[in-house]
What we know:
Blueprint: E1 2-5, E2 11-14, E3 17-20, E4 29-35, E5 38-43, E6 46-51, E7 57-58, E8 64-65
Antiparallel strand pairs: 1-4, 2-3, 4-5, 5-6, 7-8
Amino acid sequence: KVTRIVDVGGTVSFAGTGYRVGRSWGRKQVDVAIVAGSVQISYEGRVLRVHPPPRPLEGARGIRLAQGSPS
């Protein structure tokens, strides 16, 4: 779990990807975590959004790398 600040447009950045939370959460600190393979965004323990898991990264030779794999 990590803490991030939501930008004024309502997006939070995590692992190089922007995830929408909603403009009403702009400038607030939220927690971002991988839960059961999905990206979960919460505020003070309350789940705000759950996003699908990030796509696998693509390596230098077009080889797909799983998240967290050494490159």
